[in-house]
Amino acid sequence: MAASGQDRIERRLAAILAADVAGYSRLTNADEEGTHVQLQDHLRALVDPKIAEHRGRVVKNTGDGMLAEFSSVVDALRCALDVQRGMAERNAEVPDEKRIEFRISINVGDVIIDRDDIFGDGVNVAARLEGLAKPGGICISEDAHRQVRGKFDVTFEDAGEQQLKNIARPVRVFRVDLDDARPAKPISQPHNAALAVRRDRSSRRVTAIGAAVVLIAAAGGAAFYFHLGRAPVVSQMPDQLAKPSERFSIVVLPFANLSGDTSQDYLADVISDELTTGFSRFRDSFVISRSTAFTYKGKPTNVRQIGKDLGVRYALEGSVQPNGDRLRVNVQLIDTESDAHIWADQFDENRSDLLQMQDAIVTRIAHAIGVKMITERARLAQTRAANPNAEDLALRCSAALMRAHATSERDSAFRLCEQALQIDPENLRAASQESFKFTQRVANYTSPDREADLRRADELASLAIKIDPNYSQAHTAKGDVLLLAGRYREAIGSYQRALMLLPSSIQPGLASAYNYAGEPEQAIAYADKAMLLSPRDPVSRRATLFLAKVNAFGILQNYEEALVWIERGEAATPEMPLWDFVRSALLSLAGKEADARAAMQRYLANDKAPFRTMSQRRAQLAPLSSYSPRFRIWGQKFSQALREAGLPE
Length: 649
Known about the structure:
Helix content is 48%, strand content 15%. It contains 25 helices and 14 strands. The chain has helices at residues 24-30, 32-53, 73-90, 121-129, 142-148, 212-218, 265-279, 290-293, 303-310, 354-369, 377-380, 388-403, 407-423, 428-443, 450-467, 472-484, 488-501, 508-516, 520-533, 540-555, 559-572, 578-589, 593-604, 614-619, 629-645, and strands at 10-21, 57-61, 65-70, 102-114, 117-119, 138-141, 155-162, 171-177, 249-252, 256-257, 286-287, 314-323, 326-335, 340-350. Helix 2 runs antiparallel to helix 3, helix 14 (428-443) runs antiparallel to helix 15 (450-467) and helix 21 packs antiparallel against helix 22. The chain is globular, with a radius of gyration of 25 Å. It starts with 9 loop residues before the first strand and ends with a helix.
């Protein structure tokens, strides 16, 4: 029997950073406890924060070393340079015989993903390269060098081809000269400024619905220790995007409906959304999420300003003119720096051929600007919807959900999906979206039967995956079910699969799952990345990301930073009553008892408060035992802080 889509081995291209301590055995023989304490201090204060800052993740610790994964070689090298410079400063007053010095190597290659670990030849090469680096130095493979060449103001020394242990083919190696290296920032070139970030950006208004509430219900921010004594990673919200990147970066602006019939708006919205999906399949692309793009709907647009605001090189504009069963779509691609129209075309298709039209537009643009697309043959060969009427209702549902911010509006949108499923019970789009109806009720504490709703959501998400294992939204729906069911590791896998299929999508549940699984560092890193992709998201997902950061900093015992993110979240969603609920616990944990009690009284006085006693709160949460030990300890401290702030039993 052929393996199903879920049984396939998951692979992805990654930059792998390997590091170990030079002469670790000598150091431990001389002072075992002192060396251990010193190493953990370096990891806590420098290495872990730098990995998180540059959007990496620690895959594993290996005693005196570690393995980290990055989505970009540029990020990996920037991190390595910062670490080695930081270590040089930290070692300045330390005697030579007591210095801890890292050797770091970087390779890029295809890796196998299994239970959050990574395997494969790409990993093995990185591990072997590490031994060729000097203490305090960096070695990179030729494949990695090819991607960073000319992007850093550092000198690379060609060490020639090296035969690495247990690696069949020789590997060409480059050493980074750190003696006169300047700060680890890419050289400023036209169209080649990285998506740099400043800190402390105030967010725009978002509406607090859906799974956002889950994050703060179980906690919201405080206590526990880092594994091996590592300290909190402080990460903040991106403030300002740099100039458009040299890599392919685009925003698909909402298409205009030229029919004069507002009931046909959904076609323009769906085409914009599908094109965003298509561009996400460009290799190494940066595609602004649909939620941010839709904030420009119906407004005058200044393409140059949009490019500056969002950090994108291109903007795609267009219009849709339906005429019976036919559609005429006009599209133009604009360079945001010059405001020049570099490509335009017109497409005439049947309504039932929207997918074919989308693929044609994306492919022609790819040829026009010379960008290679990831081959998605399964997507291109996807079977056309069996029933055009059901698909039309599902498209209307999709467009309505993109526009709907209030619960009543979302209920109306979901009814369109229900109608589609009555006509065609196996409509892919409708099944995926209808699953969210049930998970959102559970997340909002409005479910009449939590277990029944989760079962129905799971049935729909599983059906969608069975129909098309390569449909990103189906895996997002499955991730939400697993998250609410307390199966956090499986949820992480589903969200990562959704991201692999659609890199520009926002998966706020992933940040939540990382927190519940005891990985707040990963939650912070992903929330920052998601906020960058969707800087103007008007819907609940942005609130969820705020709350994920509140949770994460709370778990890391950085209560002051968690309180900062509560302020930002409340500014964005002042109508959400639970901000004061979480604030009261954090203030109590921070030793501000009077302020904590005042916040709790404000919460209890709010007629929208979802629960008013500890027992009501417990009834609406997953059992504490379903969380990781790290989060469980935090949950216990959070509950005690609520009692001290004045929440009745």
